[in-house]
Amino acid sequence: MSNLAKRCIFAFTAMPIVAFLLWYGDYTRWAFVLGLNAIAVYEWAKMVSAAYNEKAKFISVFSPLCVVIFTMPWLDGEYKAYVLHILAVVILLYITLAFAYVDVKNLFPWLVLHIAGPLYIGLWGGMSYDLFEWGRGWEECSKFLVVMTTLWACDSAAYFAGRFLGKHKFSPQISPKKTWEGAIGGTLFAIFWFWIWTRSGFGPTVFDMPLITTVAFAFIISVVGQLGDLLISALKRWSGIKDSGEVFPGHGGVLDRADSFYLAAPIATILLSYYST
Question: Do 246 and 46 meet the contact criterion of CB atoms below 8 Å apart?
């Protein structure tokens, strides 16, 4: 079976499941975010361990547990006070594992990168849950869907713009195929896509923003999303792994498909918090 066939079959199978989880209610959305975060941080731990030729048996299981704990405080403000306490315990456990299983020459970079995974994916990715509203229905998850599809639109448009117009390399050491033309094309299309879901009149008004705010908001999250894409690409290239995982047949892992979302969604959450005040 060709890779394209695998991608299509998986997409048509997974889309109804994801749609149901997002539509049904608060706990299914919570499970969706936690599941993606746990898989993503497992992939992160696996890549770090591969780069240093260290066994990931303990750390790869431990990282998803950490990221679940880090994601949970974002559900309710009263739990946020416990983040620092959890963080202290996590760091101590990582240090213990590092002393027990990692060669001293690799100890500090190994330790920093493994701690960075739960922090980046858990604390930051967990903030994406704030894009949901409480209750059942599409309106309650519309902000999450618009931000997610805006990043996908940016990624797809950047691919085609880079393929047909790309001449100037963006970051050849990290991603040789990415170009400035692709980045600009993706950003422009992301702005257009996001504008559709504001007061444009072409779709439901998910974000009630004037035009200048729409352009600024979409520009920021598209640029940040592309930086998040480069961050994971750099980690993969550094570790010598082509795909972060195989959880999505034909598509790779969570960090292959949602690399831009883990950095852009939290920024979107922060921007919306300032805009609504």
Answer: no
> Residue 122's CB: how many other CB atoms inside 10 A?
30
Regions of the chain short of the pLDDT cut 70? 1-8, 10-11, 53-63, 65-66, 70, 72-81, 83-84, 249-251, 276-277
Output the pLDDT for position 187.
Answer: 97
Enumerate the domain spans of the chain: 26-134, 135-277
- What contacts 125, CB < 8 A, 6 or more positions away? 33, 36, 37, 40, 67, 71, 261, 262, 265, 266
Rounded CA separation 181/160 (Å):
10
Residue with tokens 């963006």: 170
pLDDT score, position 213: 94
Residue from 51, 43, 46 nearest 257 by CA:
43
Contact criterion met (CB below 8 Å) for 229 and 155:
yes
